[in-house]
Amino acid sequence: MSNSGATTVSVANPMLPGRQTVPMLSVVSSASGLINGFFEWFGSLGIFSWNVLKAAATPPYEWRELIRQLDEVGSKSLPLVAMAGAAIGVVISLEARYSLSRFGAKSMFPATLVYSVIQVMGPIITGLVVCGRVGAGIGAELASMKVTEQIDAIEACAINPYRLLAATRILACILMLPLLTLGTDACALLTGWFAQTLVEPLSFHQFIQAGFKGATFNSFLPQTFKTGVYGMIIGLIACFQGMRTRGGAEGVGRAATNSVVLGSLFVILADVVLVKFILVVFP
Amino acid sequence: MTTAYDTAMIQGIPEENVSVPVVAVDNVHKSFGALKVLKGINLSVNRGETLAVLGRSGTGKSVLLRLIIGIETPDLGTICIHGQDIADLAIDQMGRIRKKIGFLFQHAALYDSLTIAENVAFPLEHHRRDMSQSERNDRVKQLLAEVGMEGDFRKLPSEISGGMQKRVGLARALALEPEILLLDEPTAGLDPISSGEIDDLILKLQRERQMASIVVTHDLHSARTIANRLTLLNEGEIVIEGTFDDLQQSNIGFVNEFLKQS
């Protein structure tokens, strides 16, 4: 017990000579600040989501802005997700061939590639790649508008910024992610087949027949459309981070970074939940 | 001390129009965290009248305008536009009120990814969907001509000067033919010639449109030129309100100091 009556904890700090003591109260204070910040963030996100939902559900609808965002999110992300898909197709092909050969199961290669890509890798890779491109873009754009009062100017022009800026971007992400996932899957299967064919010739027709043998609706469609949830997460977090920015250029940078980091984190967490949900609801 | 009623009578505004101010701010308080910015502000503006809000930097002048347009909400007190309290209105309800208000931001707040013409057309595209594209284009040209803008309207805001940005911002604020005009530091950062041109422009618009205007400025010369009444803020409170002569004749220390330094 120190002279002041506060309980102290001795902490050895290798960066400084000797022992450094940290008052317990400041540790508790820091922890409570973090917890407060955590709940404040989620509370603000909840209020923001409600405002966006109300705005999206009531006219006048911003169709022109929605179409612009569909192009921005969808067609401009396609080359990137296609390249990502092509890369994972080759990687899975090389790894699967090696593993299956060890267990004498080379005939399972087409199904392994198809199921790995469509059920697991395609959706998550698409989500993370789009989060990096679109999340950062939306976060930075809206943050820049916020710090230069452009969002206030939109509101002063009697236009609802939740409807014009947030709802259109979030809806574009929800609609485009499943389509982009199909693009990723297609490129992955194509390059995966091509990588395999270079070693052991196999016609594309045979590959598709073997890969999709016995497949049902539940095998692939739920996993593809779950990316709509990823799109909602990416759009919502990026718009939220952007529209609450303070602090000039530094704030804009922070908003862009946080949009990607938090968006990626929540996409991965959502994947964990959705995989289980799909296994239960679509057995 | 000259009141809003006195000014209205001098201007010949019918008495029945004077009793309900277009903008009425009643006992408004606003804080940001521990910082109290506005402490019990009372003011009103009638149709055809221009009120200048003066004060040192950081005394809450811009916050007052943001409260009137509804971008911020007061902690205490009421703000009425045409007799309607705007404090608890939802964003879409507030939108109906905002169509009657034109707001010029301190740094113009032009949309930097849109051209000059697209900036001015922006409110028309959203609120005047009855207009055809050519009607909208004509209206944009008319508005830009009204504020003295010439040249290539396909330029981006970053490609024009600060004075031109203010003019474009003013044209955008006038697009929906507002009844109320809120101007935040319209001459800030401009050279004396450009400031004079903006003042002349505001006076011309006032003569032609008879709007109720509130101009926030620290430029006493500009305020004296364009305003019917002046209000001086200090530390979040109104120190004096009246004509320029009332301020000159005041024996309040802060008022004399402000006039001396301006």
Describe the structure.
The complex is a heterodimer of chains A (283) and B (262). Chain A has 283 residues and is mostly helical. Chain A folds into 2 domains: 1-58; 62-281, no CATH class. Helices cover 80% and strands 4% of the residues of chain A. Chain A has 10 helices and 2 strands. Chain A has a two-stranded antiparallel ribbon with strand order 1-2. In chain A, helix 3 (78-102) runs antiparallel to helix 4 (109-147) and helix 9 packs antiparallel against helix 10 (248-281). The longest helix of chain A is centred in the middle third of the chain and has 39 residues, at 109-147. Chain A is globular. Residues 1-13 of chain A have low confidence and may be disordered. The longest helix of chain B has 18 residues, at 192-209. Chain B contains 10 helices and 10 strands. With 262 residues, chain B is an alpha/beta fold. Chain B has helices at residues 4-11, 61-69, 91-98, 116-127, 133-146, 162-173, 192-209, 220-226, 244-249, 253-261, and strands spanning 23-32, 35-45, 50-55, 76-81, 84-85, 101-104, 180-184, 212-216, 229-234, 237-242. In chain B, helix 4 crosses helix 5 (133-146). A 6-stranded mixed beta sheet of chain B has the order 6-7-8-3-9-10, with helices on both faces. In chain B, strands 2-1-4-5 form a 4-stranded antiparallel beta sheet, covered by helices on one side. The mean pLDDT of chain B is 88. The interface between A and B is medium-sized, with 18 and 26 residues.
**Count of discrete structural domains of chain A:** 2
The strand count of chain B comes to 10
What portion of the residues of chain A fall into strands of 2 or more residues? under 5%
Oligomer: heterodimer
* Overall radius of gyration of chain B: 18 Å
- Class by SSE composition of chain B: alpha/beta
Q: Determine the N-to-C terminus distance of chain A.
A: 60 Å
The greatest interface here is: A-B, 18 and 26 residues
**Number of helices, counting only DSSP H or I runs of 4 residues or more of chain B:** 10
Q: Characterize the biggest β-sheet of chain B.
A: 6 strands, mixed
- Count of distinct strands of chain A: 2
> SSE string of chain B, helix = H, strand = E?
HEEEHEEHEHHHEHEHEEHH
